[in-house]
Specification:
Layout: E1 6-13, H1 19-29, H2 47-52, E2 59-67, E3 70-78, H3 86-94, E4 98-104, H4 111-122, E5 126-132, H5 141-152, E6 160-161, H6 170-180, E7 193-202, E8 206-215, E9 218-219, E10 223-226, E11 232-234, E12 237-241, E13 245-248, E14 250-251, E15 256-260, E16 274-277, E17 296-302, H7 308-321, E18 326-332, E19 336-343, H8 346-359, E20 364-366, E21 373-377, E22 382-385, E23 397-412, H9 416-425, E24 429-436, E25 439-447, H10 455-462, E26 468-478, E27 481-488, E28 491-492, E29 498-501, H11 505-519, E30 527-533, E31 536-543, H12 559-579, H13 586-593
Parallel strand pairs: 1-3, 1-4, 4-5, 5-6
Antiparallel strand pairs: 2-3, 7-8, 7-16, 8-15, 9-14, 10-11, 10-16, 12-13, 12-15, 17-19, 17-20, 18-19, 21-22, 21-23, 23-25, 23-26, 24-25, 27-28, 27-29, 27-30, 30-31
Length: 600
């Protein structure tokens, strides 16, 4: 097929605005799959994606469409909507020339709509605005068109109105796609220049590499070379997703497809790298991506120490399918051997943990999520700290810095006061505020540590689900930090230790102690729960003991018999208190870390 008849585009939107449903309708309309094989959320292949109703991995599909008696090849990429997976969106946009911007006509422009639009604009994309859910009574197409023009700043008067659920307007969208989106640029006769979009591991095929051919022709049997490390491979198979796997003889300039080449490790196939032919290499590599930067860290430990080797193998296998999380081994006196893992956000952390437990049948303990702090010692050496265990003696510290973010919150004006109150309570600094009709766009500078655990849940709660939230990192800022330890039965519980700002330490210590008192199981003895900074106890709660009736079997006799049994019980409780090990359930860790604001 000639390059002028190829269209490469991504579907971008905020969470729940209908990207995956619209992709389903486009696939059905173009006959990509039979009605018998069809299922909802077709491109969301993981169970966890289907259950949560979210897209985690960007998926690609090639469709054939006839317009004005000419055949067109449409390469569609369905992208995630959540801010934690913005890295997936960025990679997908680099492989395309255009974007379909889906906006829910009942909700309007939200934070990720804005963020993804700017990413598409920075990639020089032609953007086609699409108003979805026009079949709903609450649809307000005119108001949303005005929002798109005012907030994003792109022309939307010709926006396509569709219902991804019923299929209304999908044929108009396909016609506009073919007419308005630019064809890719590339020359088949030039030296081979191929861009690696993604790679993952398949137990039958090995490493599958998703590619976009910029110039030249990619075919079976070719000897290719990675430009970053000069490693060479022979191409075994070339294919496309329709969305089923379909093998082809070659991929020409402008096409998106996949290759397998006997690559054993995903690490050998770097995302963003350029592939070229070994004999006739191209002049220069294509600009790649910045590596994904983890922002949230936590420790993961197997519940049973004998599962450690299985856990290690599971992490290696999972990293083949998701290269955006990092891990390194660590040990804990309380929890044994485990791994310190870095994630792109809290949802990303939850997804990885859930996949490990489901796909590899593991039971895991998760420590408190934290961010990377920078500590400057008295010798002016800067050390990055992501684990509370590494926190140095305060007398050795000259300066402490924590990461900050610039957040964009889009919220109806009647909830503004609650949003301001929430951001101020999290040490936020307002930097911008714009009114767009009945909606406000608020920008706040916030400490990342204050937003990673329950900020988003709290924001949704106080705005009854109407607010949307997006953020970008904004460097480091000096701060007064402390390490808060939680002690249960006079022993420090490492998973609950957190580094935090000194101003909130006492309040947070009291909250955690109260929450632990509610969730920890009662023992045969009184169980003290304490919060401490260094050697100073700042909060305490006590879980009452069970009352066991040791004298219940007595049926009379002298009082000394009763006293003897009670004295024996008292000694036993003291011994148990001294040597007894408290088994803290996993639910207690997560519950203790949430802010008490959620109960208000």
């Amino acid at each position: 097929m000639k390059i002028s008849n190829i269209r490469n585009f991504a579907i971008i939107a905020h969470i729940d605005h209908g990207k995956s449903t619209l992709a389903d309708r486009l696939i059905q309309y173009c006959g990509g799959i039979s009605q018998r094989e069809f299922r909802e959320q077709l491109l969301d292949s993981m169970d966890i994606e289907r259950e949560r109703g979210i897209t985690i991995k960007a998926q690609t599909v090639q469709l054939n469409y006839k317009y004005n008696n000419e055949e067109y090849k449409l390469n569609l990429i369905d992208t995630p909507g959540h801010v934690d997976f913005a890295y997936e969106v960025n990679r997908s946009l680099a492989a395309c020339e255009g974007s379909i911007l889906v906006v829910d006509s009942t909700q309007g422009v939200e934070a990720q709509t804005l963020a993804n639009s700017y990413q598409a604009i920075s990639n020089n994309h032609e953007i086609i605005p699409v108003l979805n859910k026009i079949d709903l009574p609450a649809s307000n197409t005119e108001g949303v068109i005005k929002q798109i023009e005012d907030i994003i700043g792109i022309e939307a008067k010709e926006a396509i109105k569709v219902s991804a659920k019923t299929g209304e307007g999908v044929d108009d969208l396909l016609n506009i796609l073919v007419k308005n989106l630019p064809a890719p640029k590339g020359i088949n006769d030039d030296p081979l220049q191929v861009f690696i979009i993604d790679s993952w591991y398949d137990k039958y095929l090995g490493v599958i590499t998703l590619v976009r051919v910029k110039n030249g022709i990619l075919k079976v049997g070719q000897k290719i070379q990675m430009m970053s490390n000069k490693v060479s491979y022979d191409i075994e198979k070339v294919g496309v997703f329709t969305p089923k796997l379909k093998y082809v003889d070659k991929l020409t300039a402008g096409e998106i497809g996949f290759i397998t080449a006997g690559i054993k490790k995903v690490a050998d196939c770097k995302i963003g790298d350029t592939l070229t032919e070994e004999k006739e290499p191209c002049d220069k590599a294509l600009p790649g991506f910045k590596p994904s930067q983890p922002v949230v860290f936590c420790g993961l430990f197997p519940y049973d120490a004998s599962q450690f080797n299985d856990f290690k193998d599971s992490l290696e296998k999972l990293s083949l399918n998701d290269s955006s999380f990092s891990y390194e081994q660590e040990s804990s006196a309380a929890l044994g051997q485990g791994f310190r893992c870095g994630f792109l956000g809290l949802l990303h952390m939850e997804v990885i943990r859930e996949r490990l437990e489901r796909e590899f049948n593991l039971q895991l303990i998760t420590t408190a999520p934290s961010v990377v702090y920078q500590i400057t010692d008295n010798n002016n050496k800067i050390k990055e700290i992501q684990n509370p265990i590494e926190f140095p003696d305060p007398t050795l510290i000259k300066k402490m810095e924590e990461p900050w973010i610039i957040s964009t919150i889009i919220v109806p004006q009647n909830y503004l006061g609650s949003v301001f109150e929430l951001c101020e309570s999290r040490r936020g600094e307002q930097i911008d505020h714009n009114f767009m009709g009945k909606t406000s766009v608020v920008k706040y500078r916030l400490p990342l540590a204050e937003t990673i655990i329950d900020f988003y849940d709290r924001l949704k709660s106080i705005t009854t689900g109407y607010a949307s939230f997006d953020y970008q990192l904004d460097g480091y800022k000096e701060s007064k930090l402390i390490k808060l330890n939680i002690l249960v039965n006079q022993e420090i519980v490492e998973p609950l230790s957190i580094i935090m700002h000194a101003s909130h330490a006492e309040q947070r210590g009291r909250e955690i102690c109260k929450r632990l008192k509610e969730v920890l199981p009662r023992q045969q003895y009184k169980l003290p729960i304490q919060a401490a900074i260094g050697g100073k106890i700042i909060a305490r709660e006590t879980v009452p003991a069970y009352r066991k009736d040791v004298t219940g079997s007595l049926y009379g006799g002298d009082r000394t018999r009763k006293d003897k049994l009670l004295k024996k019980q008292k000694k036993g409780k003291q011994r148990l208190k001294q040597f007894g090990k408290i088994d803290i359930p996993q639910s207690a860790f997560l519950e203790a870390l949430k802010s008490s604001e959620n109960n208000k």
